[in-house]
Amino acid sequence: MHVFVTGGTGRIGSAVVAELLGNGHTVLALARSDASAGALDKAGAVPLRGDLADLDALRDGAAQADGVIHLAFGNDFRSPDAIAGAIAEESAALAVLGEELLGSDRPLVIVSGTPPVPGRASTETDPLPTDGPVGGRSRAVTAVLDLASRGVRSSAVRLPRTVHNEGNGGFAGMLTEIARRTGVSGYPGDGTQRWPAVHAQDAAVLFRLALEQAPAGTSWHAVADEGDKVRDIAAVIGRRLSLPVKPMPQETFGPLGPIFATDQPSSSTHTRQALGWEPTQPSLLEDLENIQS
């Protein structure tokens, strides 16, 4: 396939572009800067200048493609307004991509998150929460999946809160940044809440499989580690940075504090069985050993 990719130079996106190119696909990727365009060109993809707010560029990219993988999202989580703005921008972008693909039966693979379910690991059939700091994103994802009835082979790859590579990325990466800033490797609550995780390269394989195989209107879990206790994650970070490890007030973690404090293990049993996906990269706790002091 000739695949249009948004967010193709990020931690996940660069792995997805490499995975696609390594498996016989060609890639047209959105590039918001000269540096991004250069990185995409070096990787073997064709850059298309524009950003997520450039709806004409998104239409052009989708029109040229046999399928679309959407990965771009604003990563400013410092305030509720910033999060809301990023969700609004993405929602508009998804509406345009979906509109361009209507009636074509072409695949549109988008990013979602694994939902928390009290008392057990979430599965692919559990609904996404539509309240809280990122509830608007869940509504946008649901709207895309509903396009299955309008001739779009839409699917969602649900990512865990930590997608890592070389010790960086996701919620665990945020804990590392906060530890460097505060001098304490902290965690909210008692630290027994569990976070699922996946290596970026394993996630990239699942995005490709969803593009190639996923039926319309389906969701898939890119989960390699069902759930590590947050205090165990903080312990590795503290050891690597030679910092004390202890609980800290939820407010320390900003607008995402309530999510940081939530127990949210997740299963990928169905995804592995149905799509033949099998993670092969290091676990989160193993990968955190790459943190540099």
UniProtKB/TrEMBL annotation:
Domain of life, per lineage: Bacteria
Bias-annotated ranges (Polar residues): 263-272
Cross-referenced InterPro entries: Epimerase_deHydtase, NAD(P)-bd_dom_sf, NAD(P)-dependent_oxidoreduct
Region (Disordered): 114-136, 261-293
CDD domains, A to Z: SDR_a7
Sequence ranges assigned to domain NAD-dependent epimerase/dehydratase in this UniProt record: 3-216
Protein name per its UniProtKB record: SDR family oxidoreductase
Organism: Pseudonocardia acidicola
Lineage: Bacteria, Bacillati, Actinomycetota, Actinomycetes, Pseudonocardiales
